[in-house]
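Quick one - inputs below.
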Amino acid sequence: MANDKTTDDSAQGDSNDANTRVQELIKYVKIKAKPVELTGEIKIPKIKPNSFIDVKPQLLTALEPLERLGYPVGGLVPNWKEVFLKKMDEILKKYRSVKLFLNICVRCGACTDKCHYFIGTADPNNMPVARAELMRKVYRRYFTWQGKLLGSKYVNGSDLSEELLAMWYTYFYQCSECRRCSVFCPYGIDTAEITMAAREILNSVGLVQKYVHEIIDKAQNIGNNLGMQKNAIINALEFVQDELQETTEIPDIRVPIDEEGADVLFVTPSADFFASPHIESLYGYAKVFHQAGISWTMSTHASEGGNFGLFIHNYGHMKKINKRIWEAARQLKVKRVIGGECGHMWRVLSSYSNTMFGPFDWLDSRFPRPQHICEFTLDLLKRGALKIDKTANDEFVVTMHDSCQVARGLEMGGTKYGQFEIPRGVIRGVCNRYEDMPDNTIKERTFCCGAGQGLLGDDMIATRVKGAIPRMQAYSYAKREKGVNFLALICAICKAQLSKMFPTYGIPMEEVGGIHQLVGRAIVLGAKEGI
Amino acid sequence: MTGITFIVNMYMNAIVYVGCAVFALGFIYKVYCEYYKTPQPLKIPQTPQSTNLSGVIMRMAGDVLFFRSLSKGTTFLFITGWIFHFTFLLMIVRHLRYFIHPVPELITALGGAAMLLAGVLLVSLILLVIRRVLDERTAYVTSFADYLVLLVIIGIVFTGMLMRSEVYRPDIIAVNRFVLELFDIRAPLHMLGMHPAVAPGNVVFMCHLSLVCFLLMYFPFSKLMHSAGYFFSPTRNMVNNPRDVRHVNPWDNS
Ligand code: SF4
Ligand code: SF4
Ligand code: SF4
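Output:
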């Protein structure tokens, strides 16, 4: 027993050193990144090794959230190598995507110039294949017999070390899991899957990034990403309702909360409650529901549409957050569930929710699946159920940013290109002038806004400024060539990021907004002519 | 049989058997135990993915036969890579003449263009090597293993072409006999009984076959598994209908 204790202590001593070393290596430093000049052209840079190696997000150190999430407190755990390999093994056994993608890459280089972070930073470790190689090196060393037999040198592998952890922590938090690289890969290798796995492995040894995990914790335990308590939500939404009634001069337009028996449960990112320009879309949603005469409700229990659990390969987190929507739908006895404008929320709702909880088949049999607000609105527009005055948007030449999680994921409206056509259909239905950005920056080739999947924190501002470059260039091109002056979005993160990046790059912030912001402007209230 | 021919024969027999066995077992292990058996918990198909199975099959066929996904990325790599794979395939088909008797007409017909095809194959390989060196981004991620595979295949093609010249041409009848003999079900026993099948006494042929067998042995443990792995790639082989058809996560039982 005594013996055990001493070995324990010495192990503790060593690993404390390891922890100190890692903490030193990944210490957060505030770094400013300068925006580039907008020429409208997306240039592939020459590689500059290590140019962004110093940019790291902050660590989560608060004890309670860490405990609630089931991650180690106090930094790197003493036996981290063991924990690391065990976690990696577990993920390799649970996710074919990860296993296969570590296995079959031929390093052909087709993906090397496809990542917005590489284009922005020129750091070669931001080339998707190089990013994945960070994990592949560990895979070859510890999970293939060649590596076990010959050691890292002969299999191009890496031994576990604190430096390696730091590299992981740096570059797996310079990936927004946008999946653009995967479109061009001959085998569809999806670096996002690898990033998600890497982040969970880092979590398991005690290197937990602050921004994402704080939010996961809040969403699980309080119910929304912002950590708003019930009365705060009610206040915020009542304020929205007052605003609406005042501006529209229609006394019965409402933003219902927790109303049992409503037809629709509407979930949306909590940012929509008051952030700008998000809130404009909330006005739009309310107007659509009002005008369609469909009873709807928001829920204080499922007060968040977003699901940051998606960003790491920790199925449990994602499921727990998603469950709230399911529970709310049951409690409120609604007939259908509709999701607002949010990229990753939509991916979870439409692609994963069915797997995690089964179909919402106890709802109205015509709507056993969650719907996207754009599907809903376009349907109303097509049926002529909304009276629209397109001239209200005549001051705008609109273009659309396809949010990656929507664009590269799933069907919308039951067709494989629905996720492009339906939102565009809504825009065209409420605006006279619409122009697309260049082909290689939209639809399945869309560039991320630069802050997706957990990189929206203020500590990541350098990454955000650089990662936004391709999108900014594409927009400025459309602006110059086609006179575009409004970028329509369907993602809360994109809205938050771009409304900050536009001014950074010298474009007015007002040129960013949601699709339902446009809908809200064009809709003619009161003048209902029947459905 | 002199000592040296005996050793050569034993060697040639052994590499063929070992090569084929390692390839077959390794390949099956990888595909079955690693790719097939590992569950895919969530649906992650990727645009442009069809909402029905036949569409998915069409898309995958496009990827496999015409490198559709790659063609969106880099044109040079797409063209060179496709030519390499296509001519390589034709060369393999051409080699069936040693295994199928009587030789099908199609394969005989290929014979006329064989030299030309091999030439194109060789050039495409060399271009791929050059690209790996010159393209700075690809060079950054290229490892020794990537060159190794290319060089081995270059070696195979080169020795193959060499055998077409008068000087190095092996006795075609002897080659045929050797192959047939190896195919005999009792041949491995004969070999173990120290009576190996008689290999044609031609150094170029020996090199050619050795390299092929080396490649076969190396195959299951290398990136060459992309050939089979592609078919298991969840971004490409899952139907895009997550809302309509429930995908069950095999390890989620709560
Ligand atoms: S495109 Fe695919 S196979 Fe090629 S290097 Fe990138 S991940 Fe690897
Ligand atoms: S998923 Fe997106 S951010 Fe990540 S490596 Fe690929 S292109 Fe870059
Ligand atoms: S924030 Fe928007 S653009 Fe960025 S990754 Fe998410 S969906 Fe894509």
